[in-house]
Design goal:
The protein is an alpha+beta fold. It has a domain of about 240 residues: Nucleotidyltransferase, domain 5 (2-Layer Sandwich), CATH 3.30.420. It contains 17 helices and 23 strands. The strands form 7 sheets. A 7-stranded mixed β-sheet has the order 17-18-16-15-21-22-23. The longest helix has 27 residues. The structure holds adenosine-5'-diphosphate (ADP). The site of adenosine-5'-diphosphate (ADP) has 15 residues, from helix 11 and helix 12.
Length: about 500
């Protein structure tokens, strides 16, 4: 009897492999960092061969650590950094260019040049606000800049894939060229309601449909790993982009369930069930991870600077020695002394979308000190998350029931308590920290019968700590009022510059 599900978690800075047992516990974990390539300011690339080799090595090592062979592994699930774009030769399997990473801004101008009616069409059909972040313009860039690439693409000799597709292609011995709905929904080329590539958008970008992978549900038997890797083939039965996998891993299976990952930035996703809600409040609509036969959607909002504001205090201002120490420092004062910090270092994302806004500290008086500043930084993470949550509630027409959290900064109890206070909802922090990998494992395991039902996997879910709202309503309102004024100031200052 197979004892494990193998989850491949291919992230932006490292490739990780985890073996989970039937209780959803980690039995083996191996993580390999791999190099980031910065050819010019604002450009970010990865070597696709390094993505693959670091991932495969971590998988083999994770198995070796517990002496697991193919017979012990029921299925493989894959989760990955989203949007990152790879184009390779169908015959040789060799990439024609490095992977262009989601963070890469090289195609920003290409997005600006999209005519407004096309932008509207893209938003309506893909659920995304056109941006360089998504795969479409990155493919166009490769076809424009690699000699002979467009001709080869037109002749059906090139394949495109996000990282999941690239890994599956290699893992299957080049038999599978496929992706799942969640990854497809980040390309800016996929009609999220028709569940198919959008020909009009493909034509606009000059991308032949022959480059595009087949698309299936996240929980689906895509094929098997090649016998050469683990001794015998193992079914590949779960695929999802990292944020959607995390939502699934935290058992946010139902409409209205929301999770926030507090990493460098914050990623919020709300499951909206069968409805693809078009946001009126600056959020994007995306497909949630689901098993075959069911299609669910999510609203997504990202915050550029989340835990990164704490890194900034540590590394640039040298206000604290370590990120975890921010909690103790902030606890040294009862409030921020009326000060707000808006960490709009790279502009403001959802729901504001003000690229030119810049970091702002307001309300400083003589009594303001280092501890107040640290507290204001932590509170800013919570205020920004609050703003995305209220936008989600407005779009979905349902109030937040509770919030599931993970990511490095979710370890901060002061931040979590303030978050519960300011959104006025309970927060649940799960015991499991590897929810992204667990989500991929659940998809693969539920698809192959390793787990029988979602109810069964829900029993694995354990909360380490809950935070209930304790702040009096008048104080909550007053604090939020101050935050709104601070955000307006950050935007106002940027707009003033241009007068
Ligand atoms: P990523 O996956 O984006 O690299 P992580 O989930 O590892 O991020 O979280 C790291 C981020 O969380 C860093 O920006 C760090 O400053 C912040 N962080 C880590 N621990 C704490 C803490 N106890 N309190 C506040 N912020 C923290």
């Amino acid at each position: 009897m197979a004892k494990y599900i193998l989850a491949l978690d291919q992230g932006t800075t490292s490739s990780r492999s985890i073996l989970f047992n039937e209780k959803g516990e980690i039995k083996s974990i191996v993580q390999n960092e791999y190099p980031q390539i910065y050819p010019k300011p604002g450009w970010v690339e990865h070597n696709p061969m390094e993505i693959w080799s670091s991932q495969l090595a971590s998988a083999i090592e994770a198995c070796a650590k517990v002496g697991a062979s193919y017979a012990d592994i029921a299925a493989i699930g894959i989760t990955n950094q989203r949007e990152t774009t790879i184009v390779w030769d169908k015959e040789t399997g060799v990439p024609v260019y490095n992977a262009i990473v989601w963070q890469c801004r090289r195609t920003a101008q290409m997005v600006d040049e999209i005519p407004q009616d096309m932008k509207d069409y893209i938003q309506e059909h893909t659920g995304l606000q056109p941006d360089a972040y998504f795969s479409a313009t990155k493919i166009r860039w490769i076809l424009d800049h690699v000699k002979g690439a467009q001709e080869k693409a037109n002749a059906g000799q090139l394949l495109f894939g996000t990282v999941d597709t690239w890994l599956m292609w290699n893992l299957s011995g080049r038999r599978i060229h496929a992706t799942d709905y969640t990854n497809a929904s980040r390309t800016m080329l996929f009609d999220i309601r028709k569940l198919d590539w959008d020909q009009k958008i493909l034509d606009y970008f000059g991308i032949p449909v022959s480059m595009m992978p087949e698309v299936h549900a996240s929980g689906h038997v895509y094929g098997s790993s090649d016998a050469s890797f683990f001794g015998n083939p193992i079914p590949i039965a779960g695929v999802a982009g990292d944020q959607q996998a995390a939502l699934f891993g935290m058992c946010c299976f139902d409409a209205g369930d929301v999770k926030n990952t507090y990493g460098t930035g914050c990623f919020l996703l709300m499951n909206t069930g069968n409805e693809a809600i078009q946001s009126q409040n600056g959020l994007i609509t995306t497909i949630a991870a689901e098993l075959e036969g069911e299609v669910k959607y999510a609203l997504e909002g990202s915050i550029f600077i989340g835990g990164a504001v704490i890194q900034w205090l540590r590394d640039e201002l040298e206000t604290i020695k370590s990120a975890p120490l921010s909690e103790k420092t902030a606890k040294g004062v009862n409030d921020t002394n009326g000060v707000y910090l808006v960490p709009a270092f790279t502009g403001l994302g959802a729901p504001y979308w003000k690229q030119d806004a810049r970091g702002t500290i307001v309300g400083v008086t003589r009594g303001f000190n280092r501890k107040h500043l640290v507290r204001a930084a932590l509170e800013a993470i919570a205020y920004q998350s609050h703003d995305v949550i209220r936008a989600m509630e407005a779009d979905a027409g349902v109030p937040l029931r509770s919030l599931m959290v993970d990511g490095g900064a979710s370890a901060n109890n002061l931040l979590m308590q303030f978050q519960a206070d300011i959104v006025n909802t309970r927060i649940d922090r799960p015991k499991m920290l590897q929810n992204t990998a667990l989500g991929a494992a659940y998809l693969a395991g539920l698809t192959t019968g390793f787990w029988k039902s979602k109810d069964e996997v829900k029993k694995n879910f354990k909360i380490s700590k809950s935070f209930g709202p304790q702040m009096p309503e008048d104080i909550r309102k007053e604090k939020l009022h101050g935050w709104v004024k601070a955000v307006k100031t950050a935007i106002f200052w940027a707009e003033l510059k241009d007068e």
